[in-house]
Amino acid sequence: MSSIVSGIVALSKGEPVVKTNVVVPDPGANDVIVKIQACGVCHTDLAYRNGDISDEFPYLLGHEASGIVEEVGSAVTHVAVGDFVVLNWRAVCGECRACKKGEPKYCFNTHNASKKMTLEDGTELSPALGIGAFLEKTIVHEGQCTKVNPEEDPAAAGLLGCGIMAGLGAAVNTADIKRGESVAVFGLGGVGMAAIAGAKLAGASKIIAVDIDAKKLEWAKEFGATDIVDSSNLGGEGDASEVVAKVRELTGGFGTDVTIDAVGIMPTWQQAFYSRDFAGRMVMVGVPNLTSRIDVPAIDFYGRGGSLRPAWYGDCLPERDFPTYVDLHLQGRFPLDKFVSERIGLDDVEEAFATMKSGDVLRSVVEL
Questions:
Q1: What's this protein's family per the entry (predicted)?
Q2: Residue 342: enclosing H or E segment and its boundaries?
Q3: Predicted TM-score (pTM) above 0.85
Q4: pLDDT tens for residues 65-90?
Q5: b/e sequence 67-89, b meaning 16+ C-beta within 10 Å
Q6: Which CATH architecture has domain 167-312?
C-alpha cells in the first residue's frame, strides 16, 4: 500500500518551502522505498526553490541523503531490505552510448523511480535530482541506492550523494591530481572545501585556497590548505588579476598544476584559467547560471595549453566511490564528518537556506 509521510515541498517559484503530507506509492518492479535518516541542505535545493533550474513546480526537495531500505520491488536485486544506503542521482543504465563506450560516469539515460510521489490531492511532485529526500521515506530506482558501511554516521554519509562528492571527485577524478602537484581552489563552500580535502588526499604538496570570506579561509586550513588568498580586496580579471598574481607568487611565479573553479561565475572562472601554469589543468565544478558566457581571448586559450574540463558529479561512479570514501572516513583518512556544520529538523529547512546564504555553514543536515 502507498503511505503518507511529512515532506518539504516548494510549491511555487521563490516562495518559502512548506511542510506538508506526501503520498509515497508502492514500489514498481525495480523501485526501492528508503526510510530517510539524514539529508543535507544543498545549494541545488535552493536553486530548485528559486526556479533557477526549471519551472516544474511543485518540487519535493532534498537529495543528499542516506537511509535504510524498507521495501523493494519484485525485480530488485541490487539491494535488500535493511541495507544502509546513500542515494545518488546518476543511476547508470548500462545501455546508452556512454555506458557502452566504458564511460558510465557520463551515462545519458540515468534511472529514476517508475512512479511519482504526489500531494494528497494527486498533484505530482518533481523530486529534486530525481530523489526528493526531505521527507520520512522516498521512492527511488534500485540503481540510485549505494550500499555503504552501516557504521557510518548517516548525516555524514548522505553528503556524498551530491556536493561533497562533486568537489572531491573534481580533484581526484576529473583533475587527476598527482602526488606532489600544486592546486588552487576558488570558492570555499561545501564543494570547494571538498576539493581541498580531495587534493590533500591525492597527495598535492601545495594547496591554495581562494575566497572572500576570512572564516572559510581558516576552515580551509583544517581540510588541507597550505596557503590562503583572501580575495575580498583584490580586483581585476584576466591575466592582470591581483588574485592571479597572488597565486603565482605562491608558486614561484609560474601558477599551479591544477586549478578548480568551485563557484561558476566568470570572475572566478577567469582567475582559475589564468592561475594555471603553462599546460596546467583547469576544472570547473561550480555550476554557472543560464546567462553566463565564457570570454577569454582565443590566443590565451590556445597559447596556455593544458586542459579545461567541467566536472559532472565529480566524474564519480557511486558504486565505486561512495563505499571507498565512507571507509576512508572510518579509518580516519578523510574528514567527511567535518562537513556537517549543524543538525536540524524538517521544520528548519527554510531557515537553513538563509544560513547557507550567509556563509555560516558548510552543510546543514536534516535528521529524521
A1: Belongs to the zinc-containing alcohol dehydrogenase family.
A2: strand 342-344
A3: yes
A4: 999 999 999 999 999 999 999 999 98
A5: bbbbbbbeebebbeeebbbbbbb
A6: 3-Layer(aba) Sandwich (3.40)
